Amino acid sequence: MTMMVSPIISRYKELNTPLETCMNQSEFSRRSIRKLFYGVLVLFSTQIAIAEPIHAERIISVDSNATEILLALGVGSKIIATDITSEPLLKGENIQILGYHRTLSAEALLSLQPDLIVGSDHTGPAATVNAIQQAQINFIQLDSPESVAELSRNIHRLAKSLNREATGQALIDDIQQLENAIVSKQNGSALNMVFLLDLNDRGLSQAGRDTVGNALITLLHGENVSNFNGFQTVSLESILAINPDVIIVGKRINGAPEKEQLLARYTLLKNTAAGQAQRIVSVDASKLIAGLSITAVNQANQLAEIIFPSAR
Q: Strand, coil or helix: what is 78?
């Protein structure tokens, strides 16, 4: 006897078949979407992944700011060569000096077989930078910092690359505390300032808006009276006419100039508002060659003790 299938059941099966197919298609779609999502996630993760720390036993530093950071991170013993601006930081060490950071020889750098070369956006010439990149040597070019925030980013970048993040963060915290100390000493005082570079027999050069002198003034929360870019030779009469509240004098050789010797050579400076208020101060400008350095921030904090009345 043949069993008859109910038309209702048959109709249900007819209706159910496309529904099952649809469910299966939905499940397939969900699996496909999940695969696509994970694929995109992996691709995205690959794009944002931070490079593995560099195991560097032979480091060349061709930027004084970078050299100072490397020393503070505790890897100074791994530095095998530097540029001439870093030489004062490594006195007494048996380290090869490679010349000025803007005119480096690719052959001299590569012949030392470094694991890592650290420079800045001033490292040159371009042919040398290209040769380093083509040699596929680890090469970190830092920005020349004009603020504590930019200096902190450089420290973080080097610390992460060398697996010294804890030391780097402690260093960043110290620098930020110094910046906070400067602000507390300033206590809202708005002073007109000028930064002068002592060129010995060639006189004085005044720092404009896009200079490290301006960066130091900004760190001190002063107002740079210069209305030009770069450095310009300036006469004592012009400084008298500007009559700044603060005069900062820097020297790139043999450290900060002695105030007494400075005023003996440039007697007219005593007649400025800065001279009358005992606000002529000196700094070691060699610590500003590559931008704001760790030492420069320390110097700024010391200057704030002299400059701002509330700190006296």
A: helix
